[in-house]
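Chapter summary example: a protein plus 3-hydroxybutanoyl-coenzyme A.
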Amino acid sequence: MQGPVTFEAHGDIGVIRVNNPPVNATSAAVRQGLVAAANAFAASDQKVAVLMADGRTFIAGADIKEFGKPPVEPHLPNVIHHIEALDKPVICVIHGTALGGGFEVALGSHYRVAVPGARIGLPEVNLGLIPGAGGTQRLPRLTGMIAACEIFTTARQVKADESLSLGIVDAVIDATPLEAGMQFARKILDDGLPVRRVSEMDVAPYDDVDLDALRAKTARANKGHVCHLRGIDVAVEGTKLPFAEGMKLERQGFWDLMQTPQRAAMIHAFFSERAVASLPELKGVAPRAITHVGVIGGGTMGGGIAVACLLNGLTVTLIERDVEAAANARAGIANTLADSVKRGKLKPERREALLADALTTSDDYATLADADLVIEAVFESMDVKKDVFTKLDAVCKPGAVLATNTSYLDVDDIAAITRRPADVIGLHFFSPAHVMRLLEIVVAAKTAPDVVATGFALAKALKKVPVRAGVCDGFIGNRILKTYRTAGDHMVLEGASPFQIDKALVEFGFAMGPYAVSDLAGIDIGYLTRQRLLPTRDPCERIADWGDVLYHKGRLGRKTGHGHYIYDEKSPKGRPDPEVEEIIAAERAAKGITPRSFTDAEIVERYMAAMINEGARVVGEGIALRPLDVDVTLLYGYGFPRFRGGPMHYADYIGLDKVLATIEREARTDDFFWQPAPLLQRLVAEGRDFSSLNGG
Ligand code: 3HC
Ligand code: NAI
């Protein structure tokens, strides 16, 4: 047999082998191959078949690239049905990950074996879908309804041992996938085990109270998403029907969801997350080796960066201003690692070992002499940073990468202070740095290509999502943030309350609104940024002052118990503070503004138009390489709702002409702030959208 699926005979045992790199997705050729291999097995003398995959993983799912295109026969549910209907046993061997359609192939097999380290899951909800090839109908028959719904609504990957205890696999065998399959096949032959079809099993009785609890939890955890609850409904209602009817119900749900904008948005997010790390400039460029990382500054960011490095196997030397500050930094890191232990993410003995063997804290820069990479995270002051880089230039070995975690400052200026600007780069982490996935890799004018590659390699080692950014005030994310936050401030001046704005944006799908975010980050940060930019301000700029009033009143946000919201025992997550409304009302009165009301839709429209316009500028100026880089930045660093795909994808969805019309309308009252981005104008004129710039 030719193609990505083959059938071979090994005595009494047949082997159906899938080989479709990189992840053995069930593309059309694989589906056709599986049918042909099943037929070959049926017609053969072999009494039992092992179904396995070559390479790093079992089948990782349907081929996502085919989604949104006209479906090609044979459809996966029919392929799986064909395998299940065979009258000789098929044993599926799972190694790597059996995800989505891959796991559904396993569920259609008569027996399942996992090798240690294998994981199974139904992650379709991450793509705005539900399982579409029997997952919602077969899995409840094996694990019970509640466990099955929990698995596909959370998209979690179930490890081999748990799969065994849940009854998903029949054995975990520590051998190569082929040998594991052969061992189990011999057992089937020896014991004369029959064909065993999951579709013919009954779903164990379950308690509706548990199901209601799961529904409520799922709804809370996935606000705005349409697929999760649909999946539960399909599983529950479908399994009350004869199996074939249940499959129809599932298929209908799958196809309905396939047509939704959420599906398109989430698949855009999936591929964009991978595209950000695949840049032509990195092709063939070897990164520098990194095992020992220096971190300068052990505050919020330095501490988090050190933890991220330690948890991912790197050795860390952290430098603080003096011995006491170094000891505080060590205590902070020890606490964060203790939290990881508490949450079951880290073994206590591993924590001890990391603190004893992998972390050095000191006030002596000389201890950085053999560091491969140093990340500076000291105060956001050019003078302090220049002082640090001068010291690093003096002590670091040739070839060490010197990185700054600055939020806004000019990385070219920082590089210029050293005698090795080619080794200098920005590595902009997000707080908390050991949790947030985004890492902006800020490439300065003289940064060497292998230093850029090293930044990307570090991101991979730390399991972060890297986005390449150019040098400008705020790079990609903070620059766009400043613009949409300003749009919010303008609406507040005109009459909206910050609380309404936060509420409207949370309803849109953001994790938090901008004023709640500001309370979390600290109102001082925005104040200091405004102070820094004071000299460059244009007299035409509309300025909101109430943030400065909050700052001067010591209302710095969560850390002081007051910001825009009040944080106390009564409302640990914050409740609107009427005093803030009074401060704002006083400013409006002083400026002669008569407040007007805003609808939530108006708020979202303006806020998004500002975000998209700045995103278009950032792409137009080459600060972000493509619109998708802006999307990934906002998705992974700024709580943008994944089911909307990112601001640029969302702009394509609503129509760029509509976005431009909003900007032009607003420009009639404020033509300083609302200047349309040239790129946006050009795309509208040419009838194109942002996705046309994403390539591939
Ligand atoms: N279809 C098409 N391409 C896929 C794919 C899929 N299901 N899964 C991964 N790929 C591609 C990636 O885009 C990437 O391509 P690139 O090298 O050109 O960028 C390549 O395979 C390798 O992927 P990763 O970089 O993600 O490799 P990792 O080793 O880090 O992760 C993985 C492997 C865990 C399998 C991860 O890729 C993953 O989670 N994939 C998605 C799995 C999934 O969602 N499956 C369900 C699909 S929906 C479905 O099956 C519907 C069914 O119910 C009918
Ligand atoms: P922080 O104030 O919490 O910590 C700064 C630390 O640097 C302090 O512990 C201080 O003692 C130490 N330090 C100052 N000068 C030093 C020197 N010369 N040598 C050694 N240590 C020195 O500040 P934070 O929030 O950690 O910010 C650090 C940097 O990270 C800033 O550039 C900031 O803009 C940036 N950043 C901050 C984010 C945040 O959310 N806090 C997010 C992303 C970047």
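Key point: The two ends are 32 Å apart (CA to CA).
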